[in-house]
Amino acid sequence: MKITFYGHASLGIKVNDIYILVDPFITANPKASKIHTESLKADYILLTHAHQDHILDVEAIAKRTNAVIVSNFEIVSHFEKLGMEGHPMNLGGQWDFEFGNLKYVNAIHTSSFPDGSYGGQPGGFVIEGEHKNIYIAGDTALTMDMKLIPLQTKLDLAILPIGDNFTMGIEDAILASDFIECDKVLGYHYDTFGYIEIDHEEAKRKFYEKGKDLMLLEIGESIEL
Ligand code: NI
Ligand code: MN
Prior knowledge:
Elements: E1 2-5, E2 11-15, E3 18-22, E4 44-46, H1 52-55, H2 58-65, E5 68-72, H3 73-81, E6 86-89, E7 94-97, E8 100-106, E9 123-129, E10 132-136, H4 149-152, E11 157-161, H5 170-179, E12 184-188, H6 200-209, E13 213-215, E14 222-224
Parallel strand pairs: 3-4, 4-5, 5-6, 10-11, 11-12, 12-13
Antiparallel strand pairs: 1-2, 1-14, 2-3, 7-8, 8-9, 9-10
């Protein structure tokens, strides 16, 4: 499994020959100007919630690639009305996709579309694929529900928001890492705009002091699991 950071909360995940894109918000992110959405591959697009900083580039990419949009019922219905293909889910549900098993899990956040219309409940994803298991938390507060995840899944990597203000910050992300029993964390949802700027070295040190590993990737950089 290969994971690429496209800035903010946007990720590319490659499992065998299948390309997954998560929460594409690239064209309006000046920090991600070297990422060209026209050349991104996508068989599936996973969306954690309906906020603009998670769905901005979905329409253009999905229309070009015919990717299947996987998210909550309301978000998938929204994109199906625009002519795209989707797989609707809701919280607590899981499905065996060709890239592995995916469960749509709780997040504590909101989920309106940019025009204010209802975007269902926000969520995160637990993916069990190719002998590697990952958790993509989405935008969320620290929540006790995270303790449910290790009851069923031994995680190899957790992708957690760390920018604070709109989501968990560093201290809560460290507690989340305890709750999900995964000490290997990839941070996201930081630095994109003023409210969520963080001190990288301080963040890494705080994780390190608790015996944990916080990875912060350059935009466009990948890790292999
Ligand atoms: Ni959000
Ligand atoms: Mn967000």
